[in-house]
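Sequence only, no structure available. Ideas?
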Amino acid sequence: MKLRLELEVRNAGFTISHYDKLFLTGSCFTENIGNKFTLLRFNNLQNPHGILFNPVSVCKAIKEYVAGKQYTADELFYYNEAWHSWNHHSRFSSPIQQESLQMINHSNNTAHAYLKHADYLFITFGSAWIYTFTEEALGAKAGETASNNHKAPGNWFQKRLLNSTETYAMIEDMMKAVLSINPEIKFIYTISPVRHIREGFIENNRSKAVLIDAVHNIVNAHKNNSFYFPSYEIVMDDLRDYRFYSEDMVHPNYLASDYVWEKMVKAYMSDETIQLNKAIEDINIAFKHKPFNAASNLHKSFLLSYYNKVKALQEEHPEMDFGKELEYFGGKGK
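Reply:
I predicted one. C-alpha cells follow.
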C-alpha cells in the first residue's frame, strides 16, 4: 500500500562536480544547501550580501556583483550605535564606519571575480513581499526596497506584494547582466520551502504563487541555460508533514534539508561525484570522532588508517583542502 506520493526530480541533462564553481544567493535555505556543498568540498561562494529574500534585493545584489560596485561612506547610515547598509545583512554592520565599508567592498570584489568564472548560479527566492522606504527612513530614498530592516521602526517601511510580470522582468534584466560577463553560466532557480508566516498564511501563499509563476516563465523562456529545482514542492507536497519542520513549524528541519539534498544529488550529480561525496563524508564523520581512550592502540590504528585515506584523497584531488584533517589524523587527534 502506498502511503505517500514521492516527487521524482527530472535529470537536468548536466552534472555538477567538485571541479565546478558554484555561486549561491538568496534566502536562508540557500545556506542550508550551500553548507552541504561546503562540507563536501565543492567550490562555492554563498550570499556575498548576506541572506536576501525578495527578487528585488537578490537581482539588485547580483547586478552589483556584475558591475563590481564599490560602496562609499554616504551609502551607509548610522542607527542603534552601528553603521549599516540597507542592501546588506547585519553581519556587515559595525560601530566603525570604515570597517563596515571595508567588509562590504571586500565581499563585492570577491563576488565579482568569482561570478565571472562561475559555472552555476543558484538563486533561491523566499518571498515576493517587499518593504519600501517611506520619507522617515534614514539614509534611504523613498520608494526603494530594503534588503534588511536592521530592526528599524515600522513607520520607515511600506509593505507591497510584487506581481509576476514585474518579477519576471527584473529576473530577465539580471540574467542579461550576468551573461554579459559570463555567457556560459547556467542558472538554477528554486523557491524556498520556508513559509513566511509573519505575513500571514494566505499572504504567504500569494507570495509563493508569484515567485513560482515568474520563475517558471523565466525557465520556459530560457531553456538552454535556466533550470528549476523543486525544493518547495519536495517539502510541501512530498514530505508534507510537520515532523519535517523545526520547533517554529516554519523552517524545514535537518531531516527535510537532507532529503532535499539527496534529491539534488540524484538529479545533478554523476555516480563518480556521488562516490567522492561518500568518501569525503566518511572522513568528515571520522574527523568528529571522540575516542574513548586516545592513548589506545585501537585509536592510533584508527588515526593512521584515516591519515592514509585523507592523504590519498588529497593527492588525487589537490584542489581540495584537507589540511586540518591531515594534521588531526597525523597525530594531533591524540
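The first strand starts at residue 21 and ends at 26.
Hope that gets you unstuck.
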